[in-house]
Amino acid sequence: MDDFPLLRRELLIGAGLAPVALAAAAAPAAAQRDPADGAPSPDQLRRMQWWHEAKFGMFIHFGLYAAHQRHEWAMEYEAIPVSEYQKLTALYNPAPGSPRAWARLAKAAGMKYMVLTSKHHEGFCNWDTRLTNYNAMQFGPKRDVIAEYVAAARAEGLRVGFYYSLMDWHHPDGARCATDEAARRRFVDYTHGLIRELMTNYGKIDILWYDVSLPLDAAGWESEKMNQMVFALQPDIIVNNRNRLAGDFSTPEQRIVAQTGGRAWESCMTLNDSWGYQRADDNWKGARTVIRNLITCARDGGNYLLNIGPMPDGGIPPESARILTEVGAWMKTGGDTIYGADPCSVIRSAYSNFTCKGNTLFMHVHFWPGSDVSISGLQVKVLSAKLHKSGAPVTVTQDAFRTHLTGLPETAPDSPVTTIALECDGVPRQDTDFVRINKPRAGVGI
Ligand code: GLC
User: Fold this and answer.
1) 27 C-alpha vs ligand 1 centroid, how far in Å?
2) Contact 122 CB / ligand 1 (< 6 Å)
3) Atom nearest to 19 CA in ligand 1
4) Residue 1 — very low, low, confident or very high, per pLDDT cuts 50/70/90?
5) Is the whole-model pTM more than 0.85?
6) Contact between 206 and 200 (Cβ < 8 Å)
């Protein structure tokens, strides 16, 4: 048996690469160049302003794989025949109102937008499509999950995104389109047609989140035409880069990797190790890790798209709800240090992380060391400091090397992260090289 699919996944995991990056590696030389770098156009800045301010979104992976309960790649990793996999439709039964619960949790967590899988690699469509009967109106819930989701997100005041997998393990042309032109023609028409429905039938959509472009390249998918259609139907939408074009933003996966040159980016991540519901996966991240990741994204000018994988009845795994509720409690007072944050060049600390807004530096202490904390090499003068949550003033002393905050409580005032706001006389900058080179050494041996 051909072991290509396995090898591909191993590579993805081993190299920590996004599938699009790997897919690009197989493409002709010209397509390998990352078109990502480059300053945004005025139109991109206009369309993306809300998204840059938002910083935090909810990813939702929900499809037949939820009913299977063994990860969304099971159909390929377990080589499940289509006829057997299709039977999962009988077990895929989101209770009415489940999207409302997702949206409420997203809002409570401080998230500003949502992205739901309209069709994942398994090929099942979560909406009332006219182009295949393999959809949620005909099987499973026999309702339009996408319509419910869109209404739920809007009811909570959240922006609406659709994830759409180009790769398709169910459609008969999904693999042979790579080698058979007639199949490619049919499959590309089908794909563009599905995307057209999504862009036409649900009102204003804020994000189109393409995924895995195997087995075609941008020319094969007719990706330029695809994006043109999308923008003609949704002039304010933003699209990612996984249809083999640059789109509006890059999509580092399970890693936080800032892009250069003003290029927008969003790090997507799971709460455990699975996107789709996997019953036995208990490798949950703590709320503190999630908050630290969000802070890092905001610090480096990016967004954080954090996933939930609802259960077959649409319920949110209790651990996901617990973690996101804790994150939300922190966001109630910490959110203003994240939303609309500027990229921040203060990065060095062994127990804290930073975000910046104008002349304010937010020091987010995740490992509370005791009654004093220090920042090395801050290149601006600190005018005042306070605990962000309580407003209690903090004593600051400063010389050319060290900004020293003293008189703090022995134990962390806030959980899981305590934030100290420092008003500075300019945009915060840090230079630890300056400290290393210039801070006086002892006179041993002299
Ligand atoms: C990968 C996986 C997929 C998941 C996606 C999210 O592409 O194949 O299962 O939906 O990452 O970024």
Assistant:
1) 20
2) no
3) 7
4) very low
5) yes
6) no
